[in-house]
Amino acid sequence: MHSVIARQAGGPEVLELAERARPVPGPGQLLIKVAAAGVNFIDTYKRGGIYKVQRPFTPGSEASGTVEEVGEGVTGFSPGDRVATAEGIDCYAEFALVDEDKALPVPHGLDDFTAAALPLQGMTAHYLINSSFRVEPGHNVLVHAGAGGVGLLMIQLLKAKGARVFTTVSTAGKEQLAREAGADHVLRYDGFAAKVRELTDGTGADVVYDGVGKDTFDGSLAALRIRGMLVLFGAASGPVPPVDPQRLNAGGSLYLTRPTLGHYLLNAQERRWRADEIFGAAADGTLKVRIGARYPLAEAAQAHADLEQRRTTGKVILVP
């Protein structure tokens, strides 16, 4: 089968299409025929060496597809079932493995591409606004990169909760997408902290969701109200340098957390809660999922380059 492989750490150019044996499901595993694989910043961190992985390395933990085979002991799925996952194994490939307890049934009415676009970013948006900081009606919320995959989902989910949503974008085209998603205030990155304070009569945001990292971190802290929370969940512009905790005191007894999705999918009940709400909203049309770019599997390097250069909007997927 065809699979994308990185034999060494480096830029997008280290990704190559190669032939390797089709995997065999072990006990409790499913083999899925991949319909589409999601492209995420965590894949670029692993490819580039920010996160250590064993090489040669096949990126991808997110995919949708059809169950091809089941391993010993699997009882909840059968060949032919449609599934998706945010926790698959080597998903930039024609076939991939997923543990049964990490496979998510795809509801009727949801196409394969949308199913591939939702698990990681959708469940990320869900845990951020329900668990890392529980957003309530009337909260002032700043979401960076509002035209990105997570950003567009979060804006819609936040508005459904009754929040007042601020977001940042870099271009007029991205601004339009953020407004269509329901953002109340769409800002450029330059001076965003001062603008948030101005629009909240000097108070600041209750919470800032920051997936950009190095370029926005200082401004995110400055945009918060007293006892506000900065939820730093990504590093699209690079990792944040070490932080002196005294900065949180000086900023107004602020809170800072650096969560990751895996810690918010601790058991089957939690995983199913998040997936059912996100997939259900997409299936009934209340949550719009934008797939901004589709690439053939052989063009994974270009997909990574475009994602890292912020040339994409919404979700990026690979199609075997």
If you had to describe this structure to a student in words, what would you say it looks like?
The chain folds into 2 domains: 2-118 and 289-319, Medium-chain alcohol dehydrogenases, catalytic domain (Quinone Oxidoreductase, Chain A, domain 1, Alpha-Beta Complex); 121-262, NAD(P)-binding Rossmann-like Domain (Rossmann fold), CATH 3.40.50. 29% of the residues lie in helices and 26% in strands. The chain has 10 helices and 15 strands. It has helices spanning 41-48, 112-117, 119-132, 149-160, 172-181, 192-199, 217-222, 246-250, 268-283, 300-308, and strands at residues 2-6, 15-19, 29-39, 63-70, 82-85, 95-99, 104-105, 140-143, 164-169, 185-188, 205-210, 224-232, 255-257, 291-296, 315-319. The strands form 3 sheets. Strands 3, 4, 5, 6, 7, 14 and 15 form a 7-stranded mixed beta sheet that branches. It has a 6-stranded parallel beta sheet with strand order 10-9-8-11-12-13, sandwiched between helices. The protein has a two-stranded antiparallel ribbon with strand order 1-2. Strand 11 (205-210), helix 7 (217-222) and strand 12 (224-232) form a beta-alpha-beta unit.
